[in-house]
Amino acid sequence: MEKSFLSSLWLPFFSGILLLLATPYGGAWPVAAFALVPFFVHFSTLRTRRQIVISSMLMATPYCFAEGESLYHLAGTWWVSASATGTMMISVTYTIGVSILILIGASSYFAPMLFWAKIKRTSLLFPLIAALSIAFIEFIRSVVFFAGYSWGTMGYLLVDTMYVRQIASVIGVYGLTFILVFWNAWIALMIIRYAKEKGSYIENVRAVFFGEKYYLETIVVGLLFVFIALFGAYRESFATSEQLHLRVAVISSIVRTEDSINEESYHTYRNLMEEALSKGSTLILTPENVFPYFVIDESRRTLASRQPVNLPNASALWEDFLTLSRAYPKTTFALAVHTISGEKNYNSILLYQNGVLGDIYHKRKPIPFTEFVPFGLPMKIFETISSGANVQDFRIGEMLLGGYICSEVGITPLSVHGAKLILSPSNDSVLVGNTILLLEHQFAQMRALESDAFMLRSTKGGISSIIDPSGNTIESMSGQNGVIVTDI
Length: 488
What we know:
Layout: H1 2-7, H2 10-22, H3 37-43, H4 49-68, H5 84-107, H6 110-116, H7 125-145, H8 168-196, H9 201-210, H10 215-237, E1 247-252, H11 263-278, E2 283-288, E3 296-297, E4 302-303, H12 314-327, E5 332-341, E6 344-353, E7 356-362, E8 395-396, E9 399-403, E10 421-427, H13 434-451, E11 454-460, E12 464-467, E13 473-477, E14 482-487
Parallel strand pairs: 1-2, 2-5, 3-5, 9-10, 10-11
Antiparallel strand pairs: 1-14, 3-4, 5-6, 6-7, 8-9, 11-12, 12-13
Helix pairs in contact: 2-3, 2-4, 3-8, 4-5, 4-6, 6-7, 7-8, 8-13
């Protein structure tokens, strides 16, 4: 028995490799349709807890590594002020932390497998309980261990599937995990049943799908996926690029963070704004913190008297921006900059129209250890960012807006409270590599789907895009300074 177990360990590992290929790391998302089948077939033969744990880890580790590998490539330790030795220690600690998160991600999957082992493995409960338990553990992992970030959730593998992904508009990314796992486990169940039949190929297939014991199950599963396809086709048929009657502009940037603290960078972004204005844009969104020398005092509605990043010409540049805004009074400029209110610092989106500051969105979930220090730990960071209120009245005129600043786009519990347009500025230049940029873009697509809202994503060093409520990317741009202008 042990020898047979060892010789078949290639099956869960093969599933792990297929899952890896389905991620942006591999770029072959269609293999998600059968990636877990070898693992589930192997699982049906396991008898001990040790075997279940080993098999689950072999399946999950390649996948979780592919999802988390890009996090190792950090563009410096910008959030701390430390000596060379201190910075090195921070980098080492960060690497260890990422490794622990990947390990937690991988090890979380054997918990539902241990529970699932108690279920009869030749009934429809086999795929049903598998799908429910894995989707549930991914949700718990996100909320408890990942501070709400849905990193590594299998449902993201289906974000580019036609029709099926539309289920996320009702039950979210974890619902897509359920669909993916259920489908794979059901195929595995058919293979297991087929192996037990003794007839010819045609007789075995007929018995597995339409035999007296199984035909009702086949009808139920068939109806489930017919419903999913019809629902998806219905939503896709209403996908359109023009609902809000706005001409929007999203700025894409490759200006490095360290090159942002000068007058040249200001004029780069000003020129991009002018390009957007020349095309009749009524809303322009900038990437996150492209003007680090513009910290706004919310009570005074102007530049703060003390700027953490000093640029001697900042006041003159600020007046130049206000002059530009007044020259186009019907255009709303959405600036992603830092603000202060009393003793609190916020990462914010500010809406300017005709040179006047309107509504403000505050980032609701700052990043632990970089934007704030949790648990009162003795760690000094460059700037502590306060959390914004969960519900914020953020509008252009009467139109309610949603906000996701940078990393917030990866947090599933954050609601946009019925908004039909989401502004999502980001600084993706702090992490290096194409994989993480594709992951962030997947997150943005999923948030648009879940919220049934248009998404404007303006990034520095990432993929800037305009996404419709069905998760379709209307237009995107990366690797250059430029502007996307579209009617929505």
